UDP-N-acetylmuramoyl-L-alanyl-D-glutamate--2,6-diaminopimelate ligase
Amino acid sequence: MSERARIRSLAELGLTAQHGAEARVTGLAVDSRDVKEGYLFAALPGTRVHGAEFVGYALRMGAKAVLTDAEGARVAAEELDKFDVALVVTEDPRGALAMASALWFGSQPDVMVAVTGTNGKTSVASFTRQIWMAMGLSAVNLGTTGVEGAWDYPLKHTTPEPITLHRALALAVDEGVTHAAMEASSHGLAQRRLDGVRLAAAGFTNFTQDHLDYHATFEEYFAAKARLFDQVLAEDAPAVINMEDPRGPEMAAIAEEAGHAVLRVGHDEDYELAIVGQRFDATGQDLRFLHEGTPRQVRLGLIGGFQAENVMVAAGLCIASGADPVEVFNALPQLTTVRGRMQLAATRENGAAVFVDYAHTPDALATALQALRPHVMGRLVVVYGAGGDRDRGKRPLMGEAARDHADVRIVTDDNPRSEDPASIRAAILQADGEATEVGDRAEAILRGVDALGPGDALLIAGKGHETGQIVGDDVFPFDDVEQASVAVAALDGQMT
Ligand SMILES: CC(=O)N[C@H]1[C@@H](OP(=O)(O)OP(=O)(O)OC[C@H]2O[C@@H](n3ccc(=O)[nH]c3=O)[C@H](O)[C@@H]2O)O[C@H](CO)[C@@H](O)[C@@H]1O[C@H](C)C(=O)N[C@@H](C)C(=O)N[C@H](CCC(=O)O)C(=O)O
Ligand SMILES: Nc1ncnc2c1ncn2[C@@H]1O[C@H](COP(=O)(O)OP(=O)(O)OP(=O)(O)O)[C@@H](O)[C@H]1O
Ligand SMILES: N[C@H](CCC[C@H](N)C(=O)O)C(=O)O
Ligand SMILES: [Mg+2]
C-alpha cells in the first residue's frame, strides 16, 4: 500500500467544504507537526487546547484542507483568510475524521470485532485472535500490546486515533490478515476513534472505576462505553455481553434497544454461553459450560476464574461473527495467557509461585487476588502501587482491595510520571496502613519474593507487560517478569 501515491478529493473522503470548494489531498494529519504538502489537517477540540490554534502552522507546512468545528473556524479565521484552503466545518469533526480515515486507507480486515470494558479488553482481544488462528485463519488483535498475531506492528495507544488505526488495518490487509479483534477504550469511543471501523460483532467485559481523570462522571464513562453498542456497531451485528458484571444487563438492554441480537455470557444456565463449573489447580482450570443448553468441558491453561469469563466472551465474539461453534470450542485448550496477565513469571525452589498481572484498578486488583486464592494453598503476598497523572480516587480504593484480599502487602511505585511518588504511596497507605512501604520497585519485588514460604504465592500487580518505568519525562527499563526471575535467582542462587 503506497500512501504517498494516493490523492483523494474531499468528496471521495465524504467531506464537503464551505462554498463548494474542492481540494485534492495527499494525506491526513491530526497533529500540525505531521502535516506535509497537500494534507488535510484535522483541527480538533482538545482537552488542553483547540487544534485550531495550530492551523497557521499547518497551512505554512502546506495543508490544503482543514477539518474543524465552528469554534475552530472562529479561532483560526485570520490564518484561514491568508491561504487558499478548503475549509470543512462540522459539529463532529472527530466523527468526520474517523469516516474520512476509513475511506482514505480504503481497506480493513473482512471480519472485525471490538471489545470494551474497564478490564479484560486485551485478554479478550488476544483470546479471540488465538481462537481464529487455531482455526487456521490469518488473524490479529489490536490494542494496548500493539498489533499481534499473524502480523505485528507497534501502537502507542489502546485505541489509536483514526489515522493510525486505519493505516494499521490497511497494512494488516496487505499482509493477508482477514480477521481482527480490537480493543475499544473509553477514550477511543468518546473521541470517535473507531467510528469508521466495520464491526461484525462487539463485546462487553465489565464496568468499574477507572479514568475519572478524563471522564467527568461515572455515568459519562459508562455512556462512552455504551457508544460501542448504540452508535458504532451496525444494526444487524450481534453484541456479546458478560452478564455477570453488575452493569451487564443494562448494557444488554442498550444493545437490544439499538437492534442487536445479544449473546449472553455468564453463570445462568439460560444464557447462550453459560459457565456451570470451574475446578482450579496449580497450572490452570477445568471449565464446564453450556452452549445454547449443550454441555461441554474444556481444560484451560489459564490462572484465575475471571479468565473463563474472558474466554467465553472471546468464544462468543468468534461465534457471533460467523465461526463454527465446535471449531471455536476445540481451540480453547490451546489458549495461552496474555503477557503480563496472571502470568507465572518465576517459581522459587520451595515451590512458591510468582505471578505478574496488569491489575491497575481497584476492581482488577481485588479480582486478581481473589482469583489467585483457589490456586494457592499458603499465603498470598502482593507488591502493588498506582500510576501518577491518573485517576487519584482509585489509590485508596486499591489500598482497600489489597488489604481485604492479600495476607502480606508491599506498597511500591508504579509509573510516577510527573507526580511525587511518595505522595502516591501515601494515598494508598491511608487505606492499607499495615502494608510495608518500599518505594524502589526492584527492592519491593525482592522483599516480596523473600517473604514466600512453601505453598505461598506472590502477585506483582500494575505493570504487566510494560518494559519501562516512567519517572518524570524519563522511561527507565523495567520489566516485572524479568525482576521476578532476578529476585528468585538472587535468593535461591539460580536462574529460573
Ligand atoms: C486525553 C486524550 O485522550 N487526548 C487525546 C486528544 O488530545 P487532547 O484533546 O488532549 O489534545 P490537546 O493537547 O488538547 O491538543 C488538541 C489538538 O491539537 C493538536 N495539536 C497539538 C499540539 C500541536 O503542536 N499541534 C497540534 O496539532 C493535537 O493533536 C490535538 O488534536 O486527541 C489527540 C488526537 O486524537 C490524541 O492523540 C490524544 O491522546 C493522548 C496522546 C493520550 O495520551 N491519550 C490517552 C490518555 C488515551 O487515549 N488512552 C486510551 C485509554 C487507555 C486505557 O484504557 O487505559 C487509549 O485508547 O490508549
Ligand atoms: N474479566 C475481568 N474481570 C475483572 N478483572 C479482569 C478481567 N480481565 C482482566 N482483569 C484484570 O485486569 C487486568 C488488565 O487486563 P487486560 O489487559 O486484559 O484489560 P484491559 O481492559 O485491556 O486494560 P487497559 O484498559 O489497561 O488496556 C488484568 O491483569 C486482570 O488483573
Ligand atoms: N492504560 C492505562 C495503563 C495504566 C498502567 C499502570 N502501570 C499506570 O501507569 O498507571 C492508563 O494509562 O491509565
Ligand atoms: Mg488493554
The longest helix spans residues 305-320. The longest strand covers residues 273-281.
